[in-house]
Amino acid sequence: MCFLCEAKNSAWAGRRAFLLAAGAGAVAAATPALAQVDVGPPSKLRNLVPAQEIETAAAQQYTQLVADARAKGVLASQGSAQLQRLRTIATRLVPQTAQWNDRSRQWRWEVNLLSSKQINAFCMPGGKIAFYTGILDQLQLTDDEAAMIMGHEMAHALREHARSRIAKSQGTGTILSLGAQLLGLGQLGDVAASIGTQLLTLRFSREDETDADLVGLELAARGGYNPQASVSLWEKMGKASGGAGGPGFLSTHPSGSDRIQQLQANVPKVQQLYARARG
Fold this sequence. Notes:
Layout: H1 11-15, H2 22-28, H3 51-72, H4 81-93, E1 110-114, E2 121-124, E3 128-132, H5 133-137, H6 143-158, H7 161-170, H8 172-183, H9 188-201, H10 206-222, H11 229-240, H12 248-252, H13 257-278
Parallel strand pairs: 1-3
Antiparallel strand pairs: 2-3
Helix pairs in contact: 3-9, 4-6, 6-10, 6-11, 10-13, 11-13
């Protein structure tokens, strides 16, 4: 997965770091064109994990990450040009999300930036996004390429891959027990902390990654970002993977010619959406 930072000095300002409330997605999603990429329905396994609870756990973990980053002095300031650039991209992508997950209308989207050489980014369940400066600087991303990364990470959240992966890893009995605890309001804090820890270490399947590639491609195209950037992005990722140890992002998002070929095959499907968004 990938994760970003939020920042402001006061409690209220911190919450406003980047929040797109329920109405944000409703404006542009009133009569959206039908989906152009074919990814099928999301996994039914996700239904074993309560959406509200995993989103609450993600919000708590994200808040802690942001607080830690602020304490260490690595949280981008509100005046950061790179942070503003990312938030501008998000304002164009978030309104496109509702057709992929109606719950996203109620998500309190946040975008933050962490100062780090790591090539990494993520979006937690519930719309909590984080980028590391390394992914912007080392790959010298264009806005179109940054939008492809953001769209990909948002797609993981929209398609609820984390819910499905946790269901698979925990097993039905544990999940049902978890649900009972949550409904009884008995050990919410402990459960949330446990899930939050898992959210930081989840590795998505090849199918999840393909899913996120294609949904992210369409999200970005609908937001007015050039679909061809998905190809140039992963070409850059492929070159970056040759570094010492390899970027952390590529440990969970492996690059490869098959990935690029699949994106190339789907670029024509969303080209008209891009042209429409560009007016």
